[in-house]
Amino acid sequence: MDRLSSDDRMMGEALAEAAAALQEGVFPVGAVLAKGTDILGRARKTMASNHLSHAEMNLFHKVFMGDYRFSRADGLTLYTTLEPCVMCFGTLLHLPIVRLVFAMEDAYGGCASVTLNGAPPRHAARPVAIAGGVRRDEARALFASFLDTTAEPFWREGGAPHFQTAVRGEPVEISGVVP
Ligand SMILES: [Zn+2]
Questions:
Q1: Sheet holding 76-82: strands in order across?
Q2: pTM metric for this prediction
Q3: Does residue 174 have a pLDDT over 90?
Q4: Ligand 1 centroid to 26 CA: how many Å?
Q5: How far is the CA of 16 from the centre of ligand 1 (A)?
Q6: 17 is catalytic
């Protein structure tokens, strides 16, 4: 299986998690951690309006608790249906993950395209390869369904306007991200 089809398959697993979140009335983000073609863990955002239980954080808590033995040599890849926020991206940089693949960009709060100018040595020496746009349309459709059905005031009152415009509008160019 080549990398492209493997990425598509893994993102399919993350999209399934996102769809389950949508069924639970939660902002539909799903995440999967993979070592090659092996899935090490999967999770989704839980609890609407919980600002810490993002899909990635839930996943990290599952996989990286206790005496884990992963290192950057394991080539771990994080798949997520939405470009990570500052909390999740920062945690990703702290963990032995060497690659990030996401589906839809978050023009409001996504941090994957943030350049770590002047990063301290630890992070300067541990680059993460990033690819966006994998199965974007399917992720976008889940977000559109959420916006159509949610009762959360934040979304109904137009919170995250850049993101909502992207969900409703034409595909937008992903800048600063290596495909
Ligand atoms: Zn996050």
A1: 38-44, 30-35, 76-82, 97-104, 129-131
A2: 0.91
A3: no
A4: 14
A5: 18
A6: no
